[in-house]
Each structure stands twice: as C-alpha cells, then as structure tokens.
Specification:
alpha/beta; 10 helices; 11 strands
C-alpha cells in the first residue's frame, strides 16, 4: 500500500482513516493496537471505474486501470480531529465502519469506491477495527468489534466536540453495524445526549441478533434522527451468520412485509428499507448497499421520511451518498408497508 506518483488528470479523492489495528510494515494487522493511529490518504480513481466495483491495484499499480494511493500522510491526534471535524457543504461529517472479513486495505478501498461513485463534498472518515480479514475469522471479528467500542466512542465524541457540523453520520456495514449499536448504547449510558442528538445512524445489512438488537434499541431509545436500516431477505452471508449464531435471526434479513416488523419500526423510530431488488457487487448479496449510490447528490431535505418499513421498487442509483441517506429514503421510489401488507 505504498504511494505512487500522482498522475495528472485522474479523479482524486481524499479520505481520513482512524484505526486501532497494530501497525505492521506499511500496513496494519488484525491485532488490536494500544492506541489509535490516524492517516490522510489521497487516491486516484481509474477512468474505467465501474459503479459499486473496487479496482484493486496489483503488484505494478497502474492508475489508469486501478485505484491507487497517491498521497499517504500520518497525522497526529489533534490534527486528525481538526481535519475530520470539517463538514461538507451541507453540514455533514461522515464516518464509515466496515464489516466482517475486511483488511485495512480493503476497507480503505471500499470507502474510496463509495466516495468515487457519489462525491460527498467532504472528507469521508474510515474507522477500521481489527477484523481478521478472512472468512473463518467470524467469531474473532465479533470479539474484535466489541472491544472497539471505546475507540469508536472516542472518535465520535471528539469530532462532535470539535465540529460545527449539523449532523455526524455513522454508516456501518454488517458487524460494523453491531459495533455502532454497541457504541450508541455506551454513549446513552454515559449520558451523552449532546452527541447522540447530532448523529444520523445508517446500518447496512446489520449482522445483529434480533433479540440483541431489541435490547440495544431499548437502551438507546428514539434517536432525534430515525435510524435507517437497509435489509435484504436473500442476504446469504447473514443466513450463514444466523446458522453460526444458533439459528437466530439477523436484523439485516428482516421481512418488511411482516406486520411485526412494521410495528417495531414505528415503535422504536426506525426506517427499515428493503433493498433486495438492488443488484450488488458480490455473489452473497451482502454488499448490495455499495450499489445504491450514484452521482447527483442533493442537499439534505428538511423533512425526513417518518419511521416505518419501506421497499425499493427500483434498481437505479438513488442519487445520494451513504452520508446523505435521508436523501435516499426521500427521493427513491419507495413503497410503504402497512401492518396489513402481505
């Protein structure tokens, strides 16, 4: 993951990254470090980039064919927080928390893909916890995510304290969504309503046991901005996770046609959106959230959709970034599910 010479004319994006992984050579391992490390990256996006795809660099990186790191800079804690606190033009700071089976490099390039497909206007922030980065590391990943609550809580609280942003978006995928919910619970128990009230939480394919999520949301309570959850009935990765978890259901596979799901969405103040119809970049249907976003982002609307259960009836990009997901829920062709729907 060494920087290469910056090529003129290529699309460049800037990302910030915070990780509690242990430094290993020029990268990071799956071991948890003693302290957070902070970096700034600039990456070039190849002219042939395809939406929702990651063009990983090979040994001899060619910026005309693959994503490439052109600038990499280590930041001190104070400098990182100052950079991270700068909001986009619409007043948003966005933090991405990756899921299970991600290396540091993979999580960095996934955020680069999202930022390339739908420019954010600010500097997206990656929080990379020490995932094993391998399929067989599921149980270890759950433990690693759980042990990262304090670090994510510090990151969110520090940015909230330093930023004039109207909102701080916490966008988590899979086990990253589990980590976010645990962090919200911790912030609630610490009485940090000042931070919670500025958060917009988005969970994509959350790998969270149904009963555990219920206890988490009971503790957190209604958020000022409803939590948005993207679900899919045929997410094969979550089906496997359910088996590993003793045949217990996963929030990411909720059926929005269920009267119970609709009632729970309104009770807890959740926006549950079924994206089963979206064609994702992976064969398991677990990363289909990455195909949601495309160019044409708009400012955050004043009137957000209410809590409830919805379904996408389109397979086109919603014209938003994951850090403007209220736009996604507001502008996409959504059909609301009522308790009587089947």
């Amino acid at each position: 993951m060494q920087p290469i010479k910056k090529e003129a004319g290529l699309h460049q994006i800037t990302l910030l990254a915070a990780t509690n992984r242990t430094r290993e050579g020029s990268g990071y391992s799956s071991e948890r470090g003693e302290k957070l490390t902070f970096e700034l990256f600039q990456l070039s996006i190849p002219p042939n980039h395809k939406r929702s795809q990651i063009e990983y660099p090979v040994a001899a990186a060619d910026p005309n064919r693959s994503m490439a790191i052109t600038v990499r800079k280590t930041l001190e804690k104070r400098s990182f927080v100052q950079e991270a606190a700068i909001p986009s033009d619409d007043g948003t700071v966005g933090i991405f928390v990756h899921g299970y089976n991600y290396t540091y490099q993979e999580s960095l390039y996934r955020l680069a893909q999202i930022a390339a497909d739908a420019p954010f206007g600010g500097h997206p922030i990656l929080f990379s916890w020490p995932s094993e980065g391998r399929m067989a590391g599921y149980l270890a990943d759950r433990d690693a995510a759980l042990s990262s609550r304090d670090d994510l809580s510090w990151l969110v609280t520090s940015i909230a304290g330093a930023s004039s942003a109207k909102r701080i978006v916490l966008f988590g995928h899979s086990v990253g969504a589990f980590l976010i919910m645990e962090t919200l619970r911790q912030l609630k128990l610490e009485g940090r309503e000042d931070v919670l009230n500025r958060l917009m939480v988005v969970l994509a394919a959350p790998d969270i046991d149904d009963d555990l999520f219920r206890s988490q949301i009971e503790a957190v309570g209604h958020m000022k901005i409803p939590i948005t959850i993207f679900v899919s009935k045929n997410d094969k990765a979550l089906a496997i996770s359910s088996i590993l978890g003793g045949e217990r259901g996963r929030i990411g596979r909720l059926n929005v046609d269920s009267p119970g799901v609709k009632a729970a969405a309104e009770r807890y103040g959740l926006r549950i959106i079924d994206i089963t119809a979206v064609n994702g970049p992976d064969g398991l249907g677990h990363d289909r959230y990455a195909a949601l976003f495309g160019p044409g982002s708009r400012d955050m609307p004043n009137n957000l959709p209410s809590a409830g259960a919805y379904v996408f009836d389109v397979t086109r990009p919603v014209g938003a970034t994951p850090f403007n997901l209220a736009v996604a829920a507001d502008s996409a062709d959504l059909t609301r599910r009522s308790p009587a729907s089947r």
